[in-house]
């Protein structure tokens, strides 16, 4: 979640490029604000956070901490600092939810295991008695009944599998449509937010000397910017490895990664549309690396969604 320094660096007379820079920056801002909501909802619906890698969230949180420290050190505008604080706060909420579900499900698993041992011990003798009584009857009758019952069960399972495949395919299609509508909605919210801010005078071009000020960013702030970029680039690697090892994306929200891709793409576009001057580009390079570089990793996760699906679901469709 990079610092939106470019939003505070506009020329005095707004050109088409500056307007696009503002619109893209506003869409990126809307993407980041809504980013974690889909995964929070997915965890709540599943009653579990096993799908998302805690290492992924931890490294991402470290990236947001260094991002906030860099913004404070560089003396960026209060809006940028407030956003960096919001990102850290949102990370903590998601991490706390994951830890809560992990502890809760571990406790449930221990209780279930203890009950299973007790039930097995108490039921073993009666089950043996019932097995002995089932051998009574005419020779071959039990075998014929078992064969017929097995055949009926196989037919029922086949019908259920076919119906489940159809329903899951339709459900997957609806999910993609819902995600696409959500992305369009976020884009519209971001664009409308920028238009309202511009019309009301909340957002507007500032003097050219802001660009010069941006070139004098403290070395420490720049280092922190590169550190946050490294964290953002490395954060998704544990998640990609986890998906590959389990051959499943179950428990992950696809919309979460779609919003991440949208936020990174529009943030990079916002900076590049504002200026391609060498010094300005170098000043924003760490945040560009952190944003545009993670797009490749997001694309990798999209491929995993396509190949693995949600484990059992992908097997049923195949």
Automatic annotation (TrEMBL):
Name any Gene Ontology BP term: vacuolar transmembrane transport
Known catalytic reactions: L-histidine(out) + L-arginine(in) = L-histidine(in) + L-arginine(out)
Query: Which terms in the GO cellular component ontology are assigned?
Result: lytic vacuole membrane
Lipid bilayer topology:
Multi-pass membrane protein
Instruction: Give me the segments passing through the membrane.
Output: 20-41, 53-74, 80-101, 176-197, 217-235, 255-273
Where it sits in the cell: the answer is: Membrane
Provide ranges: composition bias, Basic residues: 141-154
Supply one GO molecular-function term.
basic amino acid transmembrane transporter activity
Question: What are the entry keywords?
Answer: Membrane, Transmembrane, Transmembrane helix
| InterPro entries, per the entry | LAAT-1, PQ-loop_rpt
The primary location reported for this protein is membrane
Q: What is this protein called?
A: Vacuolar membrane PQ loop repeat protein
Natural source organism:
Clohesyomyces aquaticus
């Amino acid at each position: 979640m990079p610092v939106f320094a470019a939003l505070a660096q506009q020329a005095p007379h707004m050109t088409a490029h500056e307007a696009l820079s503002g619109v893209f920056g506003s869409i990126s801002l809307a993407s980041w604000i809504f980013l974690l909501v889909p995964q929070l909802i997915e965890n709540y619906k599943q009653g579990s956070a096993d799908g998302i890698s805690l290492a992924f969230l931890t490294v991402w949180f470290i990236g947001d901490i260094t991002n906030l420290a860099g913004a404070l050190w560089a003396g960026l505008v209060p809006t940028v600092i407030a956003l960096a604080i919001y990102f850290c706060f949102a990370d903590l909420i998601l991490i706390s939810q994951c830890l809560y579900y992990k502890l809760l499900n571990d406790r449930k698993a221990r209780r279930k295991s203890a009950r299973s041992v007790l039930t097995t011990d108490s039921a073993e003798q009666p089950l043996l008695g019932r097995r002995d009584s089932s051998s009574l009857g005419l020779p071959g009758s039990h075998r014929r009944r078992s064969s017929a019952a097995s055949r009926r069960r196989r037919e029922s399972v086949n019908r259920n599998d076919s119906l489940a495949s159809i329903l899951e395919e339709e459900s997957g299609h609806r999910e993609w449509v819902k995600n696409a509508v959500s992305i369009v909605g976020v884009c519209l919210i971001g664009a409308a937010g920028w238009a309202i801010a511009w019309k009301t005078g909340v957002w507007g071009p500032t003097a050219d000397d802001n660009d010069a000020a941006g070139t004098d960013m403290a070395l420490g702030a720049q280092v922190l910017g590169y550190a946050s970029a490294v964290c953002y680039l490395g954060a998704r690697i544990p998640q990609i490895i986890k998906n590959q090892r389990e051959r499943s994306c179950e428990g992950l929200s696809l919309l979460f990664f779609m919003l991440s891709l949208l936020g990174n793409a529009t943030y990079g576009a916002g900076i590049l549309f504002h200026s391609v001057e060498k010094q300005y580009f170098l000043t924003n390079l760490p945040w560009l690396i952190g944003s545009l570089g993670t797009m490749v990793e997001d694309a990798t996760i999209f491929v995993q969604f396509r190949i693995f699906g949600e484990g059992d679901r992908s097997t049923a469709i195949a």
